[in-house]
């Protein structure tokens, strides 16, 4: 082969791999016979046209829906003209394609319907190493609006990711499914495209969740959220927990234990992290949520390791950087989340992936998602749990603007997105508590924005100076429901001076304050605590003196008193409830935002009910919280 032809194939391989890393499974590549590959784009149309040719088989459903697709289906990152579609095929159904075995430079999707991919691709489709996807506006698929073939990526845990952005109509509900050569058909998924960018929109309705330790309880909140009438769902992180049974940390329910291939109690290897996602996504309630609504997701710390910070340090496991483990966690998140992000395993852990991104809902709302783990500084006062990270008196570095949560590049991007947003509402998907949280002069949690107070003030001052209004921050992480006012200066804060609001959602299953107090008093371990039990024990001793036991009635009174103390000493916190689990729903209109927080009655039993915990309105152009319930 000539040097020119070799270079052409090598360039084709690089383009193919780059496109794989973006999550796109459909390609438009200039013919290699015309010289180097110079164009590549999504082309579901070409795939659909190719299906109609006699050279391709038409996959037909033969089995009951769901067989062969152990993690069901998911959609995410919707646009006005498409979404990311995701599934995973059981390796026993199809071996899939290996990018090491198939020459990527020969994969061609020709723009001309009269042309077709080369024989290697055709043969791979005939062998069942691809899946066929179908999209319809009818749940019974009586009329297919888009169809095509997508590779099953053997090297990426047999996942399929299809980006159909640019192929569908705005603000339309679509159904989708995947079919294998052998006739296995997935369950049906559903998603809604966004309104046309910048177009007039009257309302939007979305739900959001965070912190879902599989081992600690049942996913009733996911099931109930799936049943809501929503445009999409936001996940604020801790979608999985790297820990599965550390005796100092978790006490799994008998039927929700996870055993990692490494035999360790925390994930460290590629197989470990994949086992976590495979197990979590096998849950029927989480599957139902993904089948019913498109999800836009970011991570927090437990997708890698607790309280992580740059450069890939997991302080509970080692003070040393572990870039290989971080890169592995990034890769598996990319594999399993239906997100329109890139991943390049040849890059350093912090350059391999970028999950901060934004979405617009017509002229009504801009949604801005940030990453508060990959680039953040170490904890300002030290890494010891008690007295440095938690229940800390603070230290000067907290107030240094160079003590960063976002990193230089992301901070500039965030401020630019907020300032340039032309939509009415600016919704910031933020992982950890933004407003201060203190008790008797001590900071409860310097893993949150209190540990980065200088940068917090810098952001708030910049947004206030820019005249940003209708700014709502949605937050997870603390396993608590909160409704807070955001201020430029919390030392001289009055309600009238608020510049935004923060609305925190409680956890799906991870332990809340009430459960942590129960653990402390009873000497038991639950799971996924947002604060170390040593900090909770010290906090109780400081307030009530040594406590060894108490009845359930007394426990409720203690929790109530703690909540009252928190709201009294943090007057910007208008509601605080850390006794339950659940989810939140927000409705945006031209005049107001309406926030509803829902509690589930139990995560330990198979049955649960939901109830309205809080309801409030945020009037247009006013940083106020008007409560009608709770």
TrEMBL record:
Gene3D superfamilies the UniProt entry points to: PhoD-like phosphatase, Purple acid phosphatase-like, N-terminal
Protein name per Swiss-Prot or TrEMBL: Phosphodiesterase/alkaline phosphatase D
Domain Phospholipase D N-terminal: 72-193
Annotated PhoD-like phosphatase metallophosphatase domain residues: 206-524
Domain of life from the UniProt record: Bacteria
Xref: Pfam families: PhoD, PhoD_N
